[in-house]
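Input for the complex:
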Amino acid sequence: MYVKLKINGIETTVPKGGTILAAAKAASVYIPTLCHDPRVAPTGACRLCVVEDRRRPGQLIPSCFTPARDGMDIVTDSPVVTAAIREQLKLILINHPLDCPVCDKAGECVLQELVIRYGIVEAPYTLEAPFRPVDRESPLIERDMTRCVLCGRCVRICAELQGKGELEFMRRGYGTYVDTDGSRALDCDFCGLCISACPVGALTDKLFKNTTRPWKLERRETACLHCGLDCRIYLNMEGEILRRVTAPPDKDGAEELLCVRGRFGWRAAAGAVRRPPGPWLRDARGRRDATWEEALDFASRRLAEIAGERGGGAVAVLTADLLTTEEAAVARGFFRTFLGSHDIASLQAAGYRRLMDQLDRMLPSPPPPASQEDLLAADVLLVLGGGAAEWHPVLKPLINRYRQGEGKELIVISSWPDYLFERATLPVAVAPGHLEGFMAELQAALEGREVASGLDASRRGIDVGRLARLVSLLQGQGEIAVLVVPDLYARGDARAALAASLHHRVQRILPLGGQFNSRGALSAGFASPRDFQDILADIEMGRIRSLYLIGEDPLEDFPDPQRVRAALSRLDLLICQAPYATTAAEAAHVFLPTVLPWEKEGSVLAVTGQRRHLRKVMTAPPGARGDGEILEELRRMMGDPPANLPGRVAAVGETGSSGSPAAPPPGSPAATAAGGRGFPEDRTSEANAVGAEAPSPAFPFLLVPVPSLFGDGLVSRQSPELAGLKGGLGVVMNNDDFAALNLKDRETVWVATPYGAAPARVRALARIRPGTALLLHAPGNPEGLSLLRSDVAAVPAAIGRKEAP
Amino acid sequence: MGKALLKGLLLTLRHFFRKPETIPYPEVKRPVPERFRGRPVLLSGDDGQPLCVACGLCERVCPSLCIAVIPESGEDGVRRLGSYRLDLSRCSFCGFCVEACPVGAIRMGGDYELAVYRKEELIMDAEGLQRETVKRETGPGRG
Ligand code: SF4
Ligand code: SF4
Ligand code: SF4
Ligand code: FES
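Predicted:
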């Protein structure tokens, strides 16, 4: 249904319900706006968008929220309209400080542009200035409300899209201002959407503040490095200096969404971090700086020796998925085809790779990519597991957009109250450790199979009524899209199995938790069904003699660092090829500094299936080289493939097909377990989480490690801003538990588990199940990691003021 | 013939005792006219600091691209001048920077003796730009 109308004499159409402003846009007619942000609902606060209908002269119509009607004959520049706009601008200027020379917004300020466009040179009205707060204390965002024009864009975007409601209008009438409750510093998601919405300089980016001017910036488009959604970003460069990150406009001209990592985490790639100046070697004489030739020569010689002596199976690779797809193909060629290695795994993307691998096997065809539009188009969004919006924070505004649709259902099955869970139309809370078991039973029930225990809802702490509604929604008519969310460290198979079992009912399945180019690496076949758990056991048993780290650091990204350190010290060769010198770099025999994706050219494939080609947008540090370049050079130096040994033979047999994994060496734990990917010890994951590790009087809490909004990945951890927001290891517990222990907000407490103890900052949350505590920011924190064990969703823990035994 | 010579000598002699019209430059310097456009000068406040608020408009408007303004945050969080650089070897003395300045922190000065031994000395910082040696002629309408 379309409406036909005229704008300044130009015939145009808009879909029914579209505004006059939208019609004018379609007709390429300019209408001034100040309070209108296409991302949020219009509110009509500024009245600058007024137009006139020729059929009713003199009657001013605010175009941003007035629906277009058939036969309208709109004029946007009549004397009446222009006079009204000019008058309105003068009124807005009464309470605007006109401090453009020292305002960061100058040059991209909507008000400034309008004042110039309409030639307002006098300020005829004066009134006593009302109270307006100025907040320079909050991290990352500065609020100078003396500049605020009360358009409400920040208030709306924070509530409608980010779902936070951190900013609110205070007082009434002339005294109105925007502030947080209680006039405190911001304590929110720091997505910066409010900054992107503010048309004036009232909300500004503190990292950018007073560094330059917007007209000096060149915008270079690339992708965010902090997670697998690969959101489009503009690097705002002043020469070769990165000043800030902004979001590019989408195809309709509205600014796209970003999260805190994308907008504020850029100093991980520019400025703040020290990048290693060149390679180094560690041998009997100790650690010394080396030239690239020396380092590559050493690495290639040792790799050839080990692979020649013990076969390519003695070499394992861990990748942080920061490679471009082309580089991943090179890496696959080098490690799988050339060396004959069959252990290619990731730590940070372990959950994602496992989900993809399982879905690949269980589905008749590979999971169809689900783009953001596909998610918005679904009627029922089923989220299996907690932490979706913590892994990929732009899902917050995205899912809020989805929820604004009519009749949309959001089902979240989670064992902790994550962001989406709290906003679900049907939240299904499962006790920690029971999630896998519940999903398996749900799958059996949906398939009509007999379940031994029945859907024993009460045992798993599930509301029976909700369960019935869940089943009826899944069996109903609506289009279903499924988000499958991995745990931080546990390896459960049930949620992928459940998603796969629904595939005939479900339009889209989107596994989450991928890193920058995880999907691209998988598409290039740079993967194996084995994960670090298996590799670690093989190192301990002496089967794997060499570990090649590409950006990954098992000492920072895997539970139980003591065990990992002991295992790494048994290796004959540890090569660390990474953009940053992390803990493992110090232990490595060879360290090879690499460039970051912004510093090279190549394609990436987002978890949502969008493939993009990225240009080189920043100059690389002088000592660093590209990952693909290094691997090609190593291969060239090694000449012929290492001697024909069993490991090699296995690898030759599988060249060509990316889907079929190499057979694990006979006798390895993986080979003995069903399907080639069982657990090293014969335990089910459920028994792991609740059976063996139930809370005890000494350890009354169940500690669940969860992903953090501020980024757990390697790149996010290098950003001083994100690290500052995290504030170290954190634990979140139920209000009553918190009160019973008599704790104070953000106080440092000791968290002890049977494996270790660590100090952490504590916060309370009402919706957490009593007896459960969430552990935040453990990745990258050795003390935090030592509390945990891999392959368990939760560990028993004690929390208290005093140091635990 | 001799009479004409004497006439000429007399004229010379008369001028000899008159106050000279020339000045012994460079020992003595002439004040420059009021609208003279010499080397730009950054004006200082009572505290001796430049009045400049580092808005960067002069840098933007300069057709010779010879100004670089680098801002910084003051203790109160307000933008202030970090460093100011003007490359006199490129300056065309057009005065656009003066017109653009919203706070009147820069004006065309009187200094015209700009010869230096090394080109680098023509790149001036805020401190150098605050100094002005040549005085202006006080014309009508100027105190
Ligand atoms: S940063 Fe995001 S969450 Fe925080 S106030 Fe702004 S819009 Fe709201
Ligand atoms: S702070 Fe900015 S976005 Fe928010 S109401 Fe004021 S002018 Fe509008
Ligand atoms: S959602 Fe992911 S890709 Fe997008 S801005 Fe945030 S961290 Fe970056
Ligand atoms: S843009 Fe329409 S009222 Fe502000």
